[in-house]
């Protein structure tokens, strides 16, 4: 069964308490935090302070995705704010192995994200060290984009690498996930669906999450 991770980026920030209550009442497994710095991506979202407040009420695993330059310098801050997982971009980390080791030493599960143009073969030497691969299925920086179809082939390639090595690594898909394409994404080998607008813009977010869980 798929792991469903609604993305807070698409929530109503005028009423985050209500949005957290919706997630708590649903079958969602994780709550996904897209952190942007305006440098690695052309947008600014939110930081550890939002996570700290949300963590006080949300009952789900907090899955933090840092779309920022030099992300390891903020690892301890996000750990203290309540992150359970911390995912950093391969494109932003010239010392990726060192950064992953540091994240794990803080007691978080470590993940690596790859942009649409980055081949999954780039993960070959780090795959055994991590728990999650976040395959960006849109160009990072903004919510509400359309899913890039070639991501399906990248999922299959990555799944083969994981299976051949007997690893326990989750494939997370982030961007453009909808009720219409979710099954195809899961059939390709994905484990985790990050769903922002699909969940928080739905008339009934709880029912939408339940529907995604049945695929």
From TrEMBL:
A divalent metal cation binds at residues 32, 34, 65, 174. Substrate binds at residues 7, 65, 141-144, 174-176, 196-197. Keywords: Carbohydrate metabolism, Isomerase, Metal-binding. Pfam families: Ribul_P_3_epim (PF00834). GO terms for molecular function: D-ribulose-phosphate 3-epimerase activity. It comes from the Bacteria. Its EC number is 5.1.3.1. It catalyses: D-ribulose 5-phosphate = D-xylulose 5-phosphate. Pathway: Carbohydrate degradation. The active site is at 34 (proton acceptor), 174 (proton donor). Binds 1 divalent metal cation per subunit. Belongs to the ribulose-phosphate 3-epimerase family. This is Ribulose-phosphate 3-epimerase. It comes from Niabella digestorum.
């Amino acid at each position: 069964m798929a792991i469903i991770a609604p993305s807070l980026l698409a929530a109503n920030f005028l009423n985050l308490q209500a949005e957290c209550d919706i997630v708590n009442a649903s079958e969602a497994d994780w709550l996904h935090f897209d952190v942007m710095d305006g440098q690695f991506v052309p947008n600014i979202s939110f930081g550890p302070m939002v996570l700290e407040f949300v963590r006080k009420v949300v009952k789900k695993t907090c899955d933090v995705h840092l779309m920022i330059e030099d992300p390891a310098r903020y690892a301890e801050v996000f750990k203290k704010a309540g992150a359970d997982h911390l995912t950093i971009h391969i494109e932003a980390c010239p010392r990726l192995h060192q950064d992953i080791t540091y994240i794990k030493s803080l007691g978080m599960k470590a993940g690596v994200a790859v942009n649409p143009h980055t081949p999954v073969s780039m993960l070959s030497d780090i795959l055994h060290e991590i728990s999650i691969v976040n395959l960006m299925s849109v160009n990072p920086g903004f919510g509400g984009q359309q899913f890039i179809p070639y991501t399906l082939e990248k999922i299959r390639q990555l799944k083969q690498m994981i299976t051949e090595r007997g690893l326990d690594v989750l494939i997370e898909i982030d961007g453009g996930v909808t009720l219409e394409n979710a099954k195809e994404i899961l059939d390709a080998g994905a484990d985790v669906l990050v769903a922002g607008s699909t969940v928080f813009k739905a008339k009934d977010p709880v029912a939408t999450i339940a529907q995604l869980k049945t695929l």
